[in-house]
Amino acid sequence: MMELTRKGEYAIRGIVYLATRPMDKVCLLSDIAAAVDVPPTFLAKIFQQFSKIGLVRSFRGTGGGFVLGRSPESITLLEVVEAVEGPIIPNRCVSSPSNCERSGLCNVHPVWQRVQDEVRGVLQAVTLKELSTQNKR
Amino acid sequence: MMELTRKGEYAIRGIVYLATRPMDKVCLLSDIAAAVDVPPTFLAKIFQQFSKIGLVRSFRGTGGGFVLGRSPESITLLEVVEAVEGPIIPNRCVSSPSNCERSGLCNVHPVWQRVQDEVRGVLQAVTLKELSTQNKR
DNA sequence: CATAAAAGGATATAAAATGTCTTTTTAGGG
DNA sequence: CCCTAAAAAGACATTTTATATCCTTTTATG
């Protein structure tokens, strides 16, 4: 349970790599894919999703590729994960009240709400800046 | 991402219901299933898992059924969820260091560790006692 | 207009989730 | 000792989700 999919894992790898590159340098998808060891066609889909919401900017044609859409310190891990995995929903009943017929009498409901809040909190506190700079030791 | 499966949802419903019953009263699986609106055959599998680790006790034959294996206040939501969903692993790399080839250089690793800790913390803090007593207003 | 590269759409395969069915084991009661 | 009740165990079926791949289209550059 609670497991990040490959897609999410690849998404993070890809955009973190992009964050390590100078923002004025356009990167080929194929180069990114090779660098982070992800199937290029799969990463393409992921970056298309990023592009739609502005996490990255794309350029077509010769000399095209991708750059980060915003500064690394302004992009949170939460945004990245939710961009490809959808919203973080530990239980259906948390997504909308109507989904939880028993919401009135259900004591479990607030627990999942708390789980959701905690997870989002942790992921929101981390930015691409921190993830892309080697700050261990 | 991060979504509890039906199995987990059913597991909680079933055992919470059992916790509302007097501990000396043996409950039929079919009755529990009907009460919490879960396919009986599916719930059977779930309760078999519970039984193996002692969360519930089972009795076969005439007059058989299930009772809670321990007191409601000693069983946490975490135990229930992990009993049927397996350990809470937000990312493969958290389960064992060897799974994360990049663990040395990977800044994301500690974040998933934190997510895991937070989620486990929330679920561990909740017992069947609290879940089975109507304490809202 | 030829080429490079991303975007979009359709399709394929594998794995996991969600059940169901049948048979076996265990226990109780007459 | 049989008959019945109930859980345990195992095999199977279906649906959904994950994990890609391939082909065509659009867009930009030289």
Could you characterize the architecture of this molecule?
- 2 copies of one chain form a homodimer.
- By secondary structure, chain A is mainly alpha-helical.
- Chain A has one domain: Orthogonal Bundle (Arc Repressor Mutant, subunit A).
- Helices cover 51% and strands 6% of the residues of chain A.
- Chain A contains 7 helices and 2 strands, in the order αααββαααα.
- A two-stranded antiparallel ribbon of chain A has the order 1-2.
- The first copy, chain A, starts with 5 loop residues before the first helix and ends in a 5-residue tail after the last helix.
- The model of chain A has no long low-confidence stretch (mean pLDDT 91).
- The interface between A and B is large, with 39 and 38 residues.
- The first copy, chain A, binds a DNA duplex (30 and 30 nucleotides) through residues 5-7, 28-30, 39, 41-42, 44-45, 47-48, 51, 58-66.
What's the arrangement of secondary structure elements?
The structure is a homodimer of 137-residue chains.
Chain A: H1 6-20, H2 29-36, H3 40-52, E1 56-59, E2 65-68, H4 77-85, H5 92-95, H6 109-124, H7 128-132
Antiparallel strand pairs in A: 1-2
Helix pairs in contact in A: 1-2, 1-3, 1-4, 2-3
The structure holds a DNA duplex (30 and 30 nucleotides).
